[in-house]
Amino acid sequence: MSDCIFCKIANGEIPSEFLYEDERVVAFRDLNPQAPVHVLVVPKDHHENFVDDVPAETLASMERAVAAVTRETGIAETGFRCIMNTGAAAGQTVMHLHMHVLGGAPLGEGLIPS
Ligand code: 5GP
Ligand code: ZN
């Protein structure tokens, strides 16, 4: 998608520092972090969200990216939260599938951070 910011970042059109990259996904820090560690895991192919016919190989790469990034940033042991906002009511603002990985501080016990 030519006007999609995450397509441009994930495919190198906008130079970015990746914490993880393989043939299907990249991971980079969120521009507006909500926790000490706030990383986005983003497929290189454009899918609007988690239920937009995402190939199993891409989902497997996302899991590998989460494992690598949480090890690298030191939150694998302390714990972290993965969030995929889906649709406007959930607060999705970038309509290209991405998983937020948050950690590095107590995040609270509720599903919805207050
Ligand atoms: P959403 O609200 O769609 O679940 O999350 C989109 C996230 O992307 C937000 O947390 C926002 O800060 C982040 N974001 C938007 N544009 C950019 C960008 O150009 N670079 C980076 N690194 N993050 C971005
Ligand atoms: Zn896109």
UniProtKB/TrEMBL annotation:
InterPro entries: Histidine_triad_CS, Histidine_triad_HIT, HIT-like, HIT-like_sf, SEP_domain
PROSITE patterns: HIT_1 (PS00892), HIT_2 (PS51084), SEP (PS51399)
Residue numbers covered by motif Histidine triad motif: 96-100
Source superkingdom: Bacteria
Domain HIT: 5-112
Active-site residues from the entry: H98 (tele-amp-histidine intermediate)
Pfam hit, one: HIT
Chain ranges of the SEP domain: 1-51
GO molecular function: catalytic activity
Name used for this protein in its record: Histidine triad nucleotide-binding protein
Provenance organism: Candidatus Olsenella pullistercoris
